[in-house]
Specification:
The chain contains 17 helices and 15 strands. It is mostly helical and 442 residues long. It has one domain: Glycosyltransferase. It has a 3-stranded antiparallel β-sheet. Strands 6-9-10 form a 3-stranded antiparallel β-sheet. It has a 3-stranded antiparallel β-sheet with strand order 13-14-15. A hairpin with a 4-residue loop joins β11 and β12. The N terminus and C terminus are likely disordered.
Length: 442
């Protein structure tokens, strides 16, 4: 019944979105032409023709989901759901960063995307998804939805050197993100946020931990315990980025120090409450905690995830806590880990048992330290192709022709990044500074 209800909700959302888009009065949407991206897709070669097909389809998919709006901004839908999720959109356009340094058209498009996200945050920092005409599509407070646009802007700045995105509008969005994060440190006392899918509308009881309360996971499912450790990790990275922007661009030392102070409190909370001792693995990171002694030991395919900690810039690949956690996550002891004929990996409580997510498989490859593991992951991803040469939301480990979501931009963008960085040796673009990793794992 849970999956049927989600399917019905999704269908209703799609119908309402289509009606909204048809009713728009903002004018027609212009098409996107990015020759540098198209050249990269066309020039990609491999001894495996299937890989060529998959990479080209993945790299070009984002361009089909991005629309230039009449107000000069750019709008990114998730795929078969015609709305923009702050998280998904930030991840979907990340491969464009690899072309932004040398291509003015890509830089212009990314500026428009970041500008729109700044406007969205000012409309409602508790919303996770919006429509083309700046209406809230869904108001599920997800901490990662505030972190993703901040890290995208930081990565764009560091990649291109272009500071034009940091206008007064973006500064107001920065302020809204910081104020919201600080408010949600003490959710029971300071927050008025409620949502019907949460336990009692406000979530289960929590203690003060210094971490930031969040209502929903990156899967859009309600948290069980509301300190979601992967999102706390990502917030540590994003707050470092925000501090650097405030200090280096806006020359606002007060705001920079405010962001760093919050960052330190969140980090102490992760290390104090987020680590759980498991005899078989040692200390590992929990997925969710409440600060009252309760914890969930698992992971979810959606990013931020525990598996993605090095990719996010929170931990080094050889960090002992991360290695312990990774061994647990990629084992049968993890309740969200599934193994079958075609794949073995992490799924999600958002989809049925024994269905793994390409997102998690790609992330396993991106965080692998051996070429053999990367090759194994690539083979599983190629085997998941149902015939359209695209990656989907999830698939049956014993029959990839059974999958969810016909069109889903996020895993395809991540796959393109995986191939470019792990097989074509393109240097990875960080999401945050790695100069103080000792702070993150103290």
């Amino acid at each position: 019944m849970r999956f049927l209800r989600k399917a019905i909700d999704r269908a209703v959302h799609m119908v309402l979105a289509l009606a909204a888009l048809l009713a728009l009065t903002v004018g027609p949407v212009s098409s996107i032409e990015l020759p540098s991206v198209e050249r990269e897709a066309q020039n990609f070669t491999s001894s495996d023709p299937h890989l060529v097909q998959m990479f080209r389809a993945a790299l070009l998919m984002t361009g089909k989901l991005v629309q230039e709006a009449p107000d000069g901004t750019a709008y990114v839908i998730t795929g078969d759901i015609p709305a923009e999720w702050l998280r998904d959109a930030s991840a979907e356009v990340r491969p464009y960063l690899y072309f932004a340094r040398d291509d003015p058209a890509v830089r212009q498009l990314l500026r428009g995307i970041i500008e729109r996200m700044a406007k969205y945050i000012q409309i409602d920092p508790y919303a996770n998804a919006f429509t083309l005409d700046y209406r809230v599509w869904e108001q599920k407070f997800e901490l990662d939805s505030l972190s993703y646009p901040m890290t995208l802007a930081w990565s764009y700045w560091k990649t291109t050197g272009d500071r034009s995105i940091f206008n007064a509008d973006f500064q107001r969005a920065l302020d809204d993100v910081l104020v919201t994060m600080e408010r949600e440190q003490n959710h029971p006392r300071d927050s008025r946020y409620t949502e019907k899918e949460l336990f009692n509308g406000t979530g289960r009881p929590v203690a003060y931990t210094g971490m930031i309360w969040t209502g929903f996971r990156p899967s859009d499912d309600a948290c069980y315990y509301n300190f979601l450790i992967p999102s706390e990790m990502f917030a540590v990275v994003a707050l470092g980025d925000m501090a650097e922007i405030e200090r280096g661009v806006y020359h606002n030392l007060i705001k920079a120090n405010e962001a760093l102070a919050l960052r330190a409190e969140v980090q102490r909370g992760i290390q104090t409450y987020g680590l759980v001792y498991v005899p078989k693995y040692g200390y590992i990171y929990a997925y969710e905690v409440d600060g009252l002694g309760h914890a969930i030991l698992t992971d979810d395919a959606n990013v931020p995830s525990l598996l993605s900690a090095p990719y996010l810039g929170y931990a080094t690949p050889d960090d002992q806590y991360y290695l312990n956690t990774r061994r647990f996550l990629l084992s049968k002891d993890n309740p969200s880990f599934y193994q079958g004929k075609y794949a073995r990996g992490i799924g999600s409580f958002h989809t049925p048992n024994n269905w793994v997510w390409p997102l998690a498989l790609v992330m396993q490859g991106l965080t692998a330290t051996t070429q053999a593991e990367k090759e194994d992951v690539l083979a599983e991803l190629l085997a998941s192709d149902p015939g359209d040469h695209l990656l989907h939301e999830s698939f049956d480990v014993n029959d990839p022709s059974h999958f969810t979501r016909q069109s889903f931009g996020w895993p395809n963008a991540l796959f393109a990044e995986f191939i470019m960085t792990q097989f074509e040796k393109v240097p990875m673009i960080p999401m945050g500074s790695t100069s103080d990793l000792e702070f993150r794992t103290e």
